[in-house]
Predict the 3D structure of the following.
Amino acid sequence: MTTPSDPAASAAEEPVEVVDVDGTVIEIVTRARMRSERLRHRCTYIAVVDSEGRLVVHQRAPWKDVWPDRWDIAFGGVCGVGEGWAAAAARELAEEAGLTSSLVDLGGGTYADDDVDEVARVFLTRSDDPPSCPDGEVVATERVPLTALDRWIDARPVCPDSVALVRPRLPVIGSSPP
């Protein structure tokens, strides 16, 4: 997959479902409008944990439309129009990390702050494969032991939505298989 010459501009024109708190579609708008008006939308999060109990974390590209350059504890993103949760998660994992592996649904939730308003679904995958980050949305990756994750989060700017939605689900999985 090649990265567009101006990925931010390409992403801005993508159609996005605006949803109510239950995830029912209200209207379809551009991603640019969704961001500028802070409209509620659906998104996925995928935590990647390896066989040693380490979480794959990553740094977002500087051109991202929300929280550029921040670190994140889960891959993922905005669901496409009409796209199911698992399909969106698999697509995002392949686009952002270059990984294709089975997903375990860890449940859903909502998150809202001054920047975003989301109805979300969290997934887990187990993989020892190195992320290849083919679409350019990720500029760096690290592996953090789950036992050290809170210290890691406290030491750097991290996307707050994934901390709120994904972090509470991680102690449940520990280092044992889902």
About this structure: The first strand starts at residue 15 and ends at 19. Residues 174-178 have pLDDT under 50 and may be disordered.
